[in-house]
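A student in our group prepared the protein record below, which I am reviewing. What it holds is a sequence and that sequence's fold in token form. My question to you is simply how this chain folds and whether the tokens agree. Do not assume that whoever made the record got everything right. I have pasted the whole thing underneath without changing anything:
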Amino acid sequence: MLKLIESYYDAVPRSAARAEEHGPLTLFVRDGEGWPYYARPALGHLGEVPPAAVERVRARQRELGAPEAFEWVAETTPGLRAAVEASGLVVHAHPLMVLDGRAEELPALPEGCVVRMVGADDPALESAVAAPYAAFGATPSPGAAEQVRERIAAGLTRLAAAFDASGTALAAGQHQPVGAVSEVVGVGTRPEARRRGLGLAVTAALVADARGAGVTTVFLSATDGTVARMYARLGFRTIATALIAEPAEEAAPEK
């Protein structure tokens, strides 16, 4: 399973980024608008990663104006953590979970709310794209909705959202299929709508959509153990640890 996920991690950024090979590391550089990418272990690299390799990639990220960020799976590349920490980066650990069980029956949605998939031509797309940004105190870039629209039209992204009676998206998230594998990403709920089960309902909709499209492996990374227990209600189980490294001054507090 970890080999399958590692192949997915190497493949999924390539639809929106160019890959630069730096020895044991691959740096993904985004083309156009959207969230910036990161560096990760080169596919198939099983050995140690020297601190000098991390420093070279960080220098390249600074040259490009990209975040000095690294993402990887602890169990797949155990030697990378020491190298990134030696370079001064802060490492955050997150449960890596795979869908592997039956979901519990979820509570009913709040009155007036509906959860549905959002297509490329849906008038509510901009609202759905904005909801996860608001969850983290940010606003989408001017081209973010158009980029998601293009990815949906190309079959690269699937978007689900929870809407209130007025048609405003209160929570949203995506899954990104590559063959028979897809990762649920970017699930977020607006602060004023939290603790109403909307994020879990959106995730359930994404899982159902992926399964309906023939995806056999659905996975995600949870923020922490508390969130992991929430996802376990949908049938996800923890199989490994996803690690994210970034400079201390850029490290976001755990949510």
About this structure: The helical segments are 2-11, 51-64, 80-86, 125-135, 144-153, 198-212, 225-232. The chain has a mean pLDDT of 94. The longest helix spans residues 198-212. DSSP finds seven helices and eleven strands in the chain.
